[in-house]
Protein 1
Amino acid sequence: MGPYLEPTLSLAARCPARGRRARLLLTLLAALGAAGCGFAPFTRAMRDGYGVDDARLDEVQFFMGSKCVLERQVNQASGEIVHGRLRVRSGSAIDVVRIPRHTPGVLEFRTPDGLAVSFAPGTFFYFGPDPRQGPGSPYYLLGRYERSTRRFLVLHAGVEYVLRSPEPCELVVRKRETRSRSRERTTLPGRRLGE
């Protein structure tokens, strides 16, 4: 018995009305857990195992698995001529793109190694599995690693951004698991001698 169940059981022993509510809450939690409804990483094994072929992939609602933050520095410079001299003003701004956790996305197109998923009209991101993890690998946000700066760069709207998220951004889908069990009943009529 886990440490989280002990306070509930001791509460049930002390107060029968609260105990019924506690048992009802535990029953509801168990029912939700048994339903198996929630988000699951989208994998190649899921695609192959559940028969989601390329034609039906357009029907899948994708989601961003965790909060994804991209940044890029934009250098701004302006100049003007004042009293015969060129006056230059320079500065910088940070352009931030945020994709909150569980933001819905749709498939734009397929690539040989992955998928292009759009979370806003006119833009998309590339996702693909990590070949080192095999067919069970989630589809991660793809980009390129710059060794000299140790930054992971992601293409968004034709411009490279630096990935600032602490964990990899992966593609997830809603998955609902239901278990079915069937029972076939046959009643044997029996046999008598001479039949």
Note: The chain is about 20% helix and 40% strand.
Protein 2
Amino acid sequence: MDELKKFADIHSHIIWGADDGASSPAEAVELLKLDREEGACVVFATPHFGRESGFRWKADRARENFAILKERAAEAVPEVRLFLGTEWYCMNEMAEKIRGGDAFRMNDTDYVLVEFQSMEGVRQETAGQIRDHLLTLKREGFRPILAHPERYRAMQDDWDALRDLADRGILLQVNAYDLDLNLSLKTKDLAQWLADERMISFVGSDMHGLPPKRTPRLKEGIRWLYEHTDEAYADAVAFGNAEKLLGI
């Protein structure tokens, strides 16, 4: 695959004043330009949300900043379409918070992007805890998308736990960077196995800012996906599933 394939980046941190992502409208626009250079044609803004993860912002303010970003991006990066979501830290009473509009569903659908603790040196959830939280959301009528499962220690130690989640209807979003560039073999091996087993539904950049923060680096991972899986599956992961399920 020599040419860049279009893709939908469903995981990014480009709303300033909300989390540890972009610090200003100018930085957010620069990130979108970089994402476009990588091949993105759709980007979801998904700020972290959850008192447990340290981020709890006002939805009205975040929506206002998103509107400002859309206006600026329309001039600076007209090829990229923007949509709103949230990276919810999976917390107690999460379904109630979603229904209350504390933060955003993915493009106002029933799909919600959900994260767990992935930082080294802190206590992370077990595979069982991750499963129970996600299935509770599913029983409440939501459609969970598990953010970057390849980065959770519990999943790195128990790949079958991810197969079980996929069999139960939990969708998986992998950071494209992890498919080819991540220097952590545990992370990369798990991401590649998920692709080999056709268990990935979406990709994302998880971009947080200009250097030294995490910039969008996806094209190598997208290229790996097309070179190591069949084209129909790669198309679905790169763009088709987002188009079909998230209403873009």
Note: The mean pLDDT is 93.
Protein 3
Amino acid sequence: MKMQSMSGWCIEFVLLGMLFVNGAAHAQSAESILQKTRETYSQMKSYSDTGQIIYEYGTSSEDKHTFSTAFKRSPRHLVLDFHKQGGDRYVIWADPDAFHTWWKMTGQVMDYPNPNNVPAISMSGQSTAQVGLKTPTLLWGKAFNSAMLNVADPALDGSEDIDGHHCYRITGRMSDIYSATGKEVNLRKVTVWIDTDSFLIRKMIEEAKALPGQRNRTITIFEPRANPTLDDASFKFAPPTE
């Protein structure tokens, strides 16, 4: 009986050890995929996308917005064109000397000359339904700490096809942190789909706490292109005068 008990205990110990090792490898794999994605965006010479962002709230309410991005690293150029449901529009564009923003609702143009150009991106969240804080923070990873992929406790949750592209599905959590106090706010569950071939992001869902029977979910869908050939016309933007 003692031999059997010892044998059973050893088997349980080995199984627990295997679960621990597999769990650690699983978490490490998720983080390695996220890191490879960060590196892919920060090293691209050019990038473009089209996409939509869907905000689901209340019991059945839904807002849909669209956007497009064109980017060249050298010489630096960017146009992020955000179209809000209902007709509003917000554009961020960059040239080698400065970043600029234009908001249709106010007609205001803001210029952010080098080297103080970061606020053009970091302050764009509310005006762009957070789109401005997504891909641009990866393209300029060091300046923004790749904020779009600051996923805590990442786990590889299998794989899935998104519009014919095989993707890793990674889950975790995200939040916003006040730099002065370190207080964590806007906690949300996140799922991100990353193309297994290109390591480009194709879909992201962020789900925050909501009242019972209601939703508070943001779905961002990307159609990305890595290192496309972009002509000068892709970066020309003149704020409308009317």
Note: The first strand starts at residue 46 and ends at 58.
